[in-house]
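Changelog-adjacent note: as of this version, every example in the card shows the full chain rather than a window. The one below runs 174 residues end to end.
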Amino acid sequence: AVIYHNLQGAVSPTITQYAEHEGLATLPEVSVDGYQFMGWYTEQNGDIRVTEILKDSTQDVELWARWEIVEYTITYDCGKGTNAPSNVPTYTVNDIVILSDASLAGYLFNGWTDEDGNTVTRLTRGTTGNIVLTANWKTNRSLAHPIATLTNPLYEPEMMVQYGDEYSFIYYLG
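Full-length structure tokens:
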């Protein structure tokens, strides 16, 4: 019999028997999202890698899967803006990544989107694959900013219009 250990949630291989004195020329590959299968070993922490079961084998064979976690990249496309220093460039399947806002003078950050146009605020545990995120912006030109305060009014005839006893002030936008 062939007994498999440390599968990390992978589907157990279907090859569980071998014919005595015939062995197995190749061992099955297994896969788990976010991990690279590094092969079968004779012990959980052992150094002896097994690629076949030899023809003269007659006993049960126990094999331990060895895994290496995969590190994925996050590419941030901020256009002319600046990415937040807290946004990490890489992640693994075990990470939770909270995204911070990028910045661009004269614009308001309007969120991150992935390559499919989906809004992304965080990467949850279990996420895999390299990711490209695009910063979205909206102009703040439509926000009104006074050019003078009431304690220090700027009086220019073209900036004030009088209607009877009331005054209207004109603001510059942008």
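Structural remarks: The first strand starts at residue 2 and ends at 5.
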